[in-house]
Amino acid sequence: MRLINHTFLFVLILFVQPIFAQEINAYEYSGEKKVECSNGAVVSAHPLASKVGISILKKGGNAIDAAIATQLALAVVYPGAGNIGGGGFMVARLQNGKLLTLDYREKAPAAASRDMYLDEKGNARTDLSQNGHLSAGVPGTVAGLFASHAYGKLPFAKLIQPAIDLARRGLRNLYDKTERKQPRGQGCLALGLD
DSSP assignment, residue 151? Predict the structure, then answer.
Protein backbone atom coordinates (compact mmCIF):
# COMPACT_ATOMS: atom_id res chain seq x y z
CA MET A 1 0.00 0.00 0.00
CA ARG A 2 1.38 3.40 -0.95
CA LEU A 3 0.54 6.41 1.15
CA ILE A 4 1.31 9.78 -0.44
CA ASN A 5 1.42 12.89 1.77
CA HIS A 6 -0.41 11.18 4.60
CA THR A 7 0.72 10.44 8.09
CA PHE A 8 1.12 6.71 8.49
CA LEU A 9 -1.60 5.35 10.72
CA PHE A 10 -1.41 2.20 12.75
CA VAL A 11 -4.59 1.92 14.61
CA LEU A 12 -4.83 1.55 16.60
CA ILE A 13 -15.48 14.27 23.26
CA LEU A 14 -20.96 18.43 22.56
CA PHE A 15 -24.16 18.25 21.67
CA VAL A 16 -24.16 18.79 17.94
CA GLN A 17 -26.62 17.51 15.37
CA PRO A 18 -25.44 13.96 14.51
CA ILE A 19 -23.34 14.49 11.39
CA PHE A 20 -22.42 10.87 10.75
CA ALA A 21 -25.87 9.35 11.27
CA GLN A 22 -26.40 8.60 7.58
CA GLU A 23 -22.89 7.31 6.92
CA ILE A 24 -22.52 4.70 9.66
CA ASN A 25 -25.30 2.19 10.24
CA ALA A 26 -24.73 0.70 13.69
CA TYR A 27 -27.14 -2.17 13.05
CA GLU A 28 -26.11 -3.37 9.59
CA TYR A 29 -22.39 -3.79 9.01
CA SER A 30 -19.78 -6.38 8.16
CA GLY A 31 -16.02 -6.66 8.08
CA GLU A 32 -13.39 -7.49 5.52
CA LYS A 33 -10.00 -9.00 6.22
CA LYS A 34 -8.25 -7.73 3.09
CA VAL A 35 -8.47 -4.30 1.54
CA GLU A 36 -6.40 -2.67 -1.18
CA CYS A 37 -6.33 1.11 -1.28
CA SER A 38 -4.09 3.94 -2.36
CA ASN A 39 -4.91 6.97 -0.17
CA GLY A 40 -5.12 5.67 3.39
CA ALA A 41 -6.57 2.97 5.59
CA VAL A 42 -8.00 2.46 9.05
CA VAL A 43 -7.79 -0.84 10.90
CA SER A 44 -9.26 -1.40 14.34
CA ALA A 45 -10.75 -4.10 16.52
CA HIS A 46 -14.34 -3.22 15.53
CA PRO A 47 -15.94 -2.47 12.14
CA LEU A 48 -17.85 0.57 13.37
CA ALA A 49 -14.74 2.18 14.80
CA SER A 50 -12.92 1.63 11.51
CA LYS A 51 -15.84 3.21 9.63
CA VAL A 52 -15.63 6.23 11.93
CA GLY A 53 -11.93 6.61 11.13
CA ILE A 54 -12.56 6.43 7.38
CA SER A 55 -15.37 8.98 7.65
CA ILE A 56 -12.94 11.38 9.35
CA LEU A 57 -10.42 10.93 6.53
CA LYS A 58 -13.16 11.57 3.96
CA LYS A 59 -14.05 14.80 5.76
CA GLY A 60 -10.51 16.13 5.35
CA GLY A 61 -8.97 14.88 8.57
CA ASN A 62 -5.48 13.47 8.66
CA ALA A 63 -4.33 10.14 10.08
CA ILE A 64 -3.98 11.59 13.58
CA ASP A 65 -7.60 12.77 13.46
CA ALA A 66 -8.69 9.33 12.24
CA ALA A 67 -6.75 7.61 15.02
CA ILE A 68 -8.33 9.82 17.70
CA ALA A 69 -11.87 9.35 16.35
CA THR A 70 -11.33 5.60 15.97
CA GLN A 71 -10.08 5.33 19.57
CA LEU A 72 -13.06 7.27 20.90
CA ALA A 73 -15.46 5.11 18.88
CA LEU A 74 -13.77 1.97 20.24
CA ALA A 75 -14.55 3.19 23.76
CA VAL A 76 -18.25 2.93 22.81
CA VAL A 77 -18.37 -0.14 20.57
CA TYR A 78 -15.68 -2.29 22.23
CA PRO A 79 -15.40 -1.11 25.85
CA GLY A 80 -13.81 -4.34 27.04
CA ALA A 81 -10.60 -3.43 25.20
CA GLY A 82 -9.64 -0.84 27.81
CA ASN A 83 -9.72 2.24 25.63
CA ILE A 84 -9.99 5.50 27.55
CA GLY A 85 -9.44 3.69 30.85
CA GLY A 86 -5.95 2.61 29.82
CA GLY A 87 -2.92 4.05 28.13
CA GLY A 88 -0.86 3.73 25.01
CA PHE A 89 1.67 5.04 22.54
CA MET A 90 1.48 6.93 19.30
CA VAL A 91 4.25 6.57 16.75
CA ALA A 92 3.78 8.62 13.59
CA ARG A 93 5.54 10.22 10.68
CA LEU A 94 3.93 13.54 9.93
CA GLN A 95 3.33 14.91 6.45
CA ASN A 96 6.38 17.18 6.79
CA GLY A 97 8.57 14.14 7.54
CA LYS A 98 8.86 14.79 11.28
CA LEU A 99 8.90 11.65 13.39
CA LEU A 100 6.71 11.74 16.47
CA THR A 101 6.42 9.47 19.49
CA LEU A 102 3.99 10.04 22.35
CA ASP A 103 3.95 7.88 25.47
CA TYR A 104 0.69 8.11 27.36
CA ARG A 105 0.82 4.93 29.38
CA GLU A 106 -0.87 4.63 32.73
CA LYS A 107 0.99 6.21 35.63
CA ALA A 108 1.30 5.22 39.26
CA PRO A 109 -0.96 7.15 41.65
CA ALA A 110 0.65 10.09 43.46
CA ALA A 111 0.68 8.20 46.77
CA ALA A 112 2.53 5.20 45.29
CA SER A 113 5.95 4.41 46.70
CA ARG A 114 8.93 2.36 45.61
CA ASP A 115 8.46 -0.28 48.33
CA MET A 116 4.67 -0.57 48.37
CA TYR A 117 4.75 -4.08 46.86
CA LEU A 118 7.37 -5.48 49.23
CA ASP A 119 6.77 -7.45 52.41
CA GLU A 120 8.56 -6.70 55.69
CA LYS A 121 11.58 -8.79 54.54
CA GLY A 122 11.89 -6.90 51.24
CA ASN A 123 10.46 -9.72 49.10
CA ALA A 124 8.19 -8.86 46.18
CA ARG A 125 4.45 -9.27 46.78
CA THR A 126 3.29 -9.66 43.17
CA ASP A 127 -0.27 -10.32 44.33
CA LEU A 128 -0.45 -6.68 45.47
CA SER A 129 0.72 -5.34 42.10
CA GLN A 130 -1.66 -7.55 40.11
CA ASN A 131 -4.87 -7.67 42.14
CA GLY A 132 -6.87 -5.17 44.15
CA HIS A 133 -6.83 -1.43 44.60
CA LEU A 134 -3.04 -1.16 44.78
CA SER A 135 -2.70 -2.56 41.25
CA ALA A 136 -4.60 0.29 39.56
CA GLY A 137 -2.84 2.92 37.49
CA VAL A 138 -4.02 6.38 36.49
CA PRO A 139 -5.24 6.14 32.86
CA GLY A 140 -3.31 8.15 30.30
CA THR A 141 -5.36 7.67 27.13
CA VAL A 142 -7.49 10.82 27.34
CA ALA A 143 -4.41 12.99 27.95
CA GLY A 144 -2.73 11.19 25.05
CA LEU A 145 -5.67 11.89 22.72
CA PHE A 146 -5.50 15.60 23.55
CA ALA A 147 -1.71 15.64 23.11
CA SER A 148 -2.12 13.87 19.75
CA HIS A 149 -4.75 16.37 18.67
CA ALA A 150 -2.07 19.07 18.40
CA TYR A 151 -1.01 17.26 15.19
CA GLY A 152 -4.53 16.83 13.79
CA LYS A 153 -6.45 19.10 11.45
CA LEU A 154 -10.08 18.90 12.56
CA PRO A 155 -11.67 20.35 15.71
CA PHE A 156 -11.90 17.87 18.58
CA ALA A 157 -15.70 18.24 18.57
CA LYS A 158 -15.80 16.65 15.09
CA LEU A 159 -13.62 13.78 16.24
CA ILE A 160 -15.72 12.87 19.25
CA GLN A 161 -19.13 13.38 17.64
CA PRO A 162 -19.24 9.94 15.93
CA ALA A 163 -18.65 8.23 19.30
CA ILE A 164 -21.42 10.35 20.85
CA ASP A 165 -23.75 9.41 17.99
CA LEU A 166 -22.98 5.69 18.39
CA ALA A 167 -23.57 5.89 22.15
CA ARG A 168 -26.88 7.72 21.73
CA ARG A 169 -28.28 5.45 19.02
CA GLY A 170 -26.95 2.17 20.31
CA LEU A 171 -25.51 -0.58 18.16
CA ARG A 172 -25.83 -4.23 17.28
CA ASN A 173 -23.79 -6.27 19.74
CA LEU A 174 -21.08 -8.45 18.20
CA TYR A 175 -20.55 -10.33 21.43
CA ASP A 176 -21.96 -13.71 22.29
CA LYS A 177 -23.83 -13.08 25.54
CA THR A 178 -22.96 -16.47 27.02
CA GLU A 179 -19.30 -16.47 26.02
CA ARG A 180 -18.78 -12.70 26.59
CA LYS A 181 -16.33 -12.51 23.72
CA GLN A 182 -16.45 -11.57 20.07
CA PRO A 183 -17.41 -14.31 17.63
CA ARG A 184 -14.44 -15.46 15.58
CA GLY A 185 -13.75 -13.23 12.61
CA GLN A 186 -16.48 -10.70 13.37
CA GLY A 187 -14.60 -7.82 14.92
CA CYS A 188 -11.75 -6.64 12.73
CA LEU A 189 -12.35 -4.36 9.78
CA ALA A 190 -9.88 -2.82 7.43
CA LEU A 191 -11.23 -0.01 5.31
CA GLY A 192 -9.46 1.79 2.53
CA LEU A 193 -9.76 5.29 1.20
CA ASP A 194 -9.42 5.66 -2.57
Answer: T
